[in-house]
Amino acid sequence: MKKKLAVDLLPVAAPSPGLGVLGAFNQYAPLEIFGGSRVTYYTWIESPLGPLLLVGDGHKLTGLYLKGQKHFPTQTDSWQASDQDIPFAQTQTQLSEYFAHQRQSFDLPTHAQGTDFQQQVWQLLPQIPFGETVTYGSLAEKIGQPGAARAVGAANGRNPLSIIVPCHRVIAANGQLTGYAGGVDRKQWLLAHEQKEIISRCGNPAI
What we know:
By secondary structure, the chain is of the alpha/beta class. It has helices at 20-26, 86-99, 116-124, 136-142, 149-157, 184-202; strands at 4-7, 33-34, 37-38, 40-45, 52-56, 61-66, 79-81, 112-115, 134-135, 170-171. The chain folds into 2 domains: 11-99, Double Stranded RNA Binding Domain (2-Layer Sandwich), CATH 3.30.160; 114-202, Arc Repressor Mutant, subunit A, CATH 1.10.10.10. Strand 2 and strand 3 (37-38) form a beta hairpin. The termini are far apart. 29% of the residues are buried.
């Protein structure tokens, strides 16, 4: 059985001046405990891709899911609806900036749970430049397992922080848009959204 880890993902961008991830962390209130159970906070927000589910532990963002995607979390009695959880407002602001072509990377406190192999893959995803793509095979080579492209694809599909940790930038060796838990249509939309910004900034190359 694979060992489960709970590893904090590294910030994708430099912390904001005067605050930063550590500064924000120090302001968090202690995590609430009810009846001996750790509370999972959640809220829904709207986006061009449809409703997004934000999940947090009272300290950090632990999940961002597209409605109807594969591997959607199961709500339990320990879940509590709250739009006041500290990472949620910051997450919504940065997502709004991303969708408005005002942001290319995210600077959020996150905490993703997965196997050691999944963590290896997820740590590479924020390193993929905005508007660009890499293949599952190239990621497998980067973690020292060149024959593990399919396993990388499976780990990519289990990424709990959609959009923020850009698993949509990974494609098949033949260029096909496969392996996205949120659906190929949403993956295509995200890639087109980013490439549109690159073209608008650099100018449309002459044909």
